[in-house]
Amino acid sequence: MIEIRECDDHEAAKELIREYSKIKGAESCFISLEKELADLEGFYRDGALLLGYDGEKPVATIAFKRIDDKKAEARRLFIKPEYRGLGYARPMINALLDKCRGSGFEEVRFTTKPEVMSVGYALYKKMGFEELENNKGTVLMRMVLI
User: Fold this and answer.
1) How far apart, in whole angstroms, are the C-alpha atoms of residue 53 and residue 27?
2) CA–CA separation, 53 vs 1, rounded Å?
3) Is the pLDDT of residue 23 over 80?
4) What's the sign of the alpha-carbon dihedral 21, 22, 28, 33?
5) Is the Cβ–Cβ distance between 102 and 114 less than 8 Å?
6) Closest CA to 50 of 108, 10, 82
């Protein structure tokens, strides 16, 4: 079972995000990576960075940033490869959605690349995210929270 909590270990979060950034085909998702990692607290000031733990080991991450007063952008859903298939992604997304609702957001948006992240894309659709646009293989999705 995964335990999800607000980021309490920025080094572990950086390690997970760096590992995620090395996925072949996901490079374009990490344009501002060094800026993000240099100041995780500041980068997610108007949002949250959550870590998922298997026991005491950080194995997953998800985050969101404020777009405007009503919308948040979900980012960095990553489960370490050896922990995939254990049902950790759905609770990570649900924790993020709950946190967004609690912060007063009415909509959450995700950008994903179905060709690279097909399992995540299928889960987003199954959970009720709708596709807004597809720009050369990069898909913008959203979920209305109200």
Assistant:
1) 25
2) 9
3) no
4) positive
5) no
6) 10
Rounded CA-CA distance 105/135 in Å is 25
**Amino acid, res. 19:** E
Domains and CATH numbers, the chain: 3-144 (3.40.630.30)
- The pLDDT tens digits of the residues spanning 42-65 come to 989 999 999 999 999 999 999 999
26-64 burial by CB neighbour count: b if 16+ within 10 A, else e? eeebbeeeeebbeebeebbeebbbbbbbbeeebbbbbbb
SS3 85: coil
| Axis-axis angle for helices 89-102, 118-127 (nearest 10) | 50
Report pTM. Answer: 0.90
Among candidate residues 94, 99, 119, 117, the one with its CA nearest the CA of residue 49: 99
User: For residue 134, what are its two tokens?
Assistant: 């597809």
CA 59, chain centre distance (Å): 13
Place of tokens 């980021």: 7
The contacts of residue 20 (CB under 8 Å, 6+ apart) are: 26, 61, 76, 78
Residue 33 has pLDDT above 90, yes or no: no
According to DSSP, residue 23 is labeled S
- CA 1 to chain CA centroid, Å, is 19
